[in-house]
Amino acid sequence: MSYNLLKGKRGIITGALDENSIAWKVALRAHEEGAVFVLTNAPIAMRMGEINKLAEKTGSKIIPADATNMAEIEKLFTDSVEHLGGKIDFVLHSIGMSVNMRKDVGYTELNYDYFQKGIDISALSFHKMLAAAYKLDALNEYASVVALSYMGAQRTYPFYTDMADIKAMLESIARSFGYHYGLKKKVRVNTVSQSPTKTKAGSSIKGFSEFYDFAEMQSPLGNASAEDCANYCVSLFSDLTKMVTMQNLYHDGGYSSTGVSQEQLNALIEKQK
Ligand code: NAI
Known about the structure:
- Helices cover about 50% and strands about 15% of the residues.
- It is α/β, with parallel strands linked by helices.
- Helix 1 (about 20-30) links the parallel strand 1 (about 10-15) and strand 2.
- Helix 4 (about 70-85) packs parallel to helix 6 and helix 6 runs parallel beside helix 7.
- The site of 1,4-dihydronicotinamide adenine dinucleotide (NAI) has 27 residues, from helix 1, strand 5 and helix 8.
């Protein structure tokens, strides 16, 4: 169902790799809600070609940009403003990658080159996007910038290795830049802390499937799906959340506030029998 929440709004959506990507669902929902936007991803990710299908479905232009490269990010903003015919109202940062996690390197023996790469791709890219928009004055007043995060920023999970530290940085950037951009132009900056979701990035985490079930058991509403996340992002891009900024917002079916669920306890009781 469409509420025309984003009618007349222009956006930039990063990170749609395939139809499982959270960004993919956000693009579909934003389109339904009347937004026009540019899709972007790293040139290397474009080779899969899946994004062309999304561009066709949503009538969007694709502008490739490596999110670690400042010149490419600046070009992304300049070209998007030109193509969409005005300044930008919303930006989705949906970019994450840890080489340590991919190569199964444990937290106590992290490879620092990989660590730096992870920081560059998954956290500094957010600062770079905000800094490019700020410098070019590419966003409208009350524009909404959202990045996707995970609870590993607050609590320790053995499998989340360096991404825990990287997500903590991402959330801090939202607060810090949110302050400066709020003062300068009333731009809002938030992170959404999403449930485990079955995507390419999610599934690259060792033990993801077991953990997915664990989180499902702990959340009174169950895990939030990528579609649910898209709905939440759309609400944050809309004018209905105009005074929300510098927040890390949990979108996890109640997981983050639950100590232990009865279902988890029952499983332990069964084990002790
Ligand atoms: P995904 O694998 O579909 O998306 C990750 C995207 O990052 C891909 O499109 C990839 O091409 C892009 N990317 C990687 N390096 C890049 C670069 N140098 N420049 C530009 N783009 C680059 O996976 P998913 O799950 O949709 O991830 C999106 C965001 O959601 C990430 O920040 C992830 O950490 C976050 N998240 C995911 C959860 C999950 O369980 N899947 C849970 C909570 C947060």
